[in-house]
Amino acid sequence: xxxxxxxxxxxxxxxxxxxxxxxxxxxxxxxxxxxxxxxxxxxxxxxxxxxxxxxxxxxxxxxxxxxxxxxxxxxxxxxxxxxxxxxxxxxxxxxxxxxxxxxxxxxxxxxxxxxxxxxxxxxxxxxxxxxxxxxxxxxxxxxxxxxxxxxxxxxxxxxxxxxxxxxxxxxxxxxxxxxxxxxxxxxxxxxxxxxxxxxxxxxxxxxxxxxxxxxxxxxxxxxxxxxxxxxxxxxxxxxxxxxxxxxxxxxxxxxxxxxxxxxxxxxxxxxxxxxxxxxxxxxxxxxxxxxxxxxxxxxxxxxxxxxxxxxxxxxxxxxxxxxxxxxxxxxxxxxxxxxxxxxxxxxxxxxxxxxxxxxxxxxxxxxxxxxxxxxxxxxxxxxxxxxxxxxxxxxxxxxxxxxxxxxxxxxxxxxxxxxxxxxxxxxxxxxxxxxxxxxxxxxxxxxxxxxxxxxxxxxxxxxxxxxxxxxxxxx
Length: 475
Fold this sequence. Notes:
By secondary structure, this protein is an alpha/beta fold. It has helices at residues 11-23, 34-43, 60-70, 85-93, 106-129, 161-173, 190-199, 221-226, 243-246, 262-274, 300-306, 311-317, 331-349, 358-366, 372-386, 399-407, 426-444, 449-456, 460-469; strands at 3-7, 27-31, 48-52, 75-81, 98-102, 140-143, 180-183, 208-212, 251-255, 276-277, 286-287, 291-296, 320-323, 355-356, 391-392. A six-stranded mixed sheet has the order 6-8-9-12-7-13. It has a five-stranded parallel sheet with strand order 2-1-3-4-5, sandwiched between helices.
């Protein structure tokens, strides 16, 4: 029996989740106040927290950080609106186990809950065995060649000209020992590219260690990267092997490298120059032999000009660079990735969905995918979970994606105006202006009707009725 806490200012959601978890045999409690919930966690044990992102006094990031300060082993799942893809990505970087989107579906909640509790159990087992502690299990991975979880099974580059160019660059740099910088937006598959380089190198039989620098707490970054000795600082109850030692002989991948603090950059530069590491609290230096691959969603030379990233460290990394295009810029690859993610989702959920109908393919190609491959993967997993047919249909997709795809054609259609009418007819002019404003606001909020209604200062039902009148629901 696990101890689960729910934090949401919507009491209906709280009660719904409480009943659901209690039926599964878990000790469940909810709070509509995030402040009261945090006070409760200070004096009570908890395994898993489901927390809404939008709360009255704090947002989900703040609550997540405070929970991790209370107990880093508590698994946190953020509840968010589907249009907040970037928000979801950000909270995972900060240490959330996962996120679920509204509306909530029992099967999705159950799968997420089971995975989170399993991760909690694995974390506790690792600590008991004295293994290196992973405070961020989803963003810090140790991969060894041949492991059942190795990302080699997840490597797929694509067939577009952009993808073929990336593959050529990988094949060119992989056999060398060059350091590599991989640039790309969040969700473009930077870790998979890094592992592809590793798997085609002479180090392929050695460890591949991936670290998300964006999820490292400033105070613990040195310990996570370089390790520490027992008693090195308050709370260091046992010695810990750092990620560089774990990667010895192989490759270390430092994602979102620009997020490292300046003092850690200094330590990292010393490690690269001397090829030695020193655990916190130790006088002993340990030789290491690692290849370093880093990634960033922004050009690092921009950070050097701002003074937030050391220029000498940048030049150490910049022996070779690869730019990953956004998914919206490689339309020819979208359905290849979709089929790949569909096969994975079928296997995970025990389903046999054969593919996508023509409408869904059109929607996928029209949508701009701000969350890139990560968003596409999540959309397909959700669709597979909801689908009761042999193909994925538009009914299983989030409304925001369907709307954006359909609305993308509005600007090109002269007949899109609800009433062309007489240019001097005030009613016609007013209706056309209202139509254009509704479309403009919907696009601005990524077709989230609740947000659109709020900006337009009308209730959601009124917006829905107006969209129906203007034929926007069936565009």
